[in-house]
Amino acid sequence: RIMFEHIRSQFSETFGDDNGVQVIMAPGRVNLIGEYTDFNEGFVFPMTVDRGVYVGIRARTDTQVRVFSSRFGELIEYQLDKLEQPDSGHWSCYVLGVVEELRVLGLVPHGFDAVIDGNLNLGAGLSSSAALETATALALQTLFGFDMSRVDVATLCQRIEHRYAGVMCGIMDQFASGLGRSDHALLLDCRTLSHVNIPVNLDDHRIVIISSEVKRELASSAYNERRAQCDEGVALFKQYDPTIASLRDVTPDLFDAYGDQLSEVVFRRCRHVITENARVLDASAALAVGELVQFGRLMTASHHSLKEDFEVSCDELDCLVDIANCTKGVLGSRMTGAGFGGCTVTLIHMDAIETLRANLLPYTERFGLNPEMFVLQGNLEAGEVWGTYST
Ligand code: GLA
User: Fold this and answer.
1) Quick one: which of 48, 150, 252, 325 is 20 to 30 A from 351 by CA?
2) pLDDT digits over 322-376, tens only?
3) What is the average pLDDT score of the chain?
4) d(Cα 32, Cα 45) in Å, to the nearest integer?
5) What is the pLDDT of residue 158?
6) Residues lining ligand 1, judged by CB closer than 6 Å?
């Protein structure tokens, strides 16, 4: 509601009035477990958060496109068929990339005015860019009424990340943003894209997200490097079994039999992916039947694997996870998302939340950073946002 009013007033301020503006939201996500498994055709288990990206949009009759980012205080204007590719990493590359992909498909018949804002921290590891892409695509779909499934929206948005932002990401973030449901986490098979929404019943426990406040500077090169290392692993196992298409297909037995032929680094990268896939299946099954202790154990095991084997954690994330695990009432904790900074996710008894908050003080003393901690209060679903009109 607050964001709805806010977007409309921003729209009036920027474009004169807010008559006929539609508001569309796509949430960020927190990955509960299943890191770096998506581009290996494995399993992931994310859920949406209670914050997201909001787009206020209205059609024009000409081919002018005007997009205003409230967050950056910047207005971009161009003619629909004359896009100059924006710098990768600039906020507009995600938005205009989506517009361009849809235009090429013949789905954007004319121009529009749009205002974008959100309450998701940028670069915090909660997939603000996936939420931005998804919100843009769904806004254009609402405006022009074209037929496209949410799964196709997710793959289109993933392509934007590859083509416009230069990150060879998997499908998890865009899928979670567009298809995640309130009160559920999404178990996704990244090979077939089949997915199940699993109810999140936490009883007296809560999911807490803590931002390390470390920005992920080197993330895209390190990310693409990890991807190449996984491919290297696949190439070896393929020699022994030609049906192997990805690390998803490498069984623990096969890994034990031939893994020692890999370089030491690639060995560890593969071991992470193979064990993480098993953890995702165990963890989602545990959550489905309310076995929270087991779920928490698997979260912490995932963190260790990401730290030691996949090497995408950092001192700050490790410190946050250690603090959580030393707090009575915490069932498990791990880094979430691509790593190298960003957030941790923790499963904790509600009575222990304030103790955990107090326990973060040494983190601030050690790193000079003030971690933001928030308790997930429900979670959002992507779609049009309605408010009451007074006109
Ligand atoms: C980023 C990517 C995802 C996924 C995670 C790691 O969030 O966008 O596709 O690979 O990292 O699990």
Assistant:
1) 48
2) 999 999 999 999 999 999 999 999 999 999 999 999 999 999 999 999 999 999 9
3) 95
4) 6
5) 98
6) 35-36, 38-39, 169-170, 172-173, 337-338
Q: Which two tokens stand for residue 167?
A: 């990150």
Determine the Cα–Cα distance for residues 369 and 210; give it in Å rounded to an integer. 12
Q: Which residues of 303-318 are buried (b: 16+ CB within 10 A; e: fewer)?
A: bebbbebbbbbbebbb
Decide if 378 contacts 30 (C-beta within 8 A).
no
3-state secondary structure of 48: strand
pTM of the entire structure? 0.96
- Of residues 166, 274, 301, the one with CA closest to residue 220: 166
Contact present, 26 and 135 (Cβ < 8 Å): yes
Residue of minimum CA distance from atom 1 in ligand 1: 338
Ligand 1: which of 36, 40, 168, 227 to mutate, judged by most atoms within 8 Å of the beta carbon?
36
Give which of 391, 303, 304 is closest to 345, Cα–Cα: 303
CA distances from 256 to 107, 197, 261, 351 (A): 50, 33, 10, 43
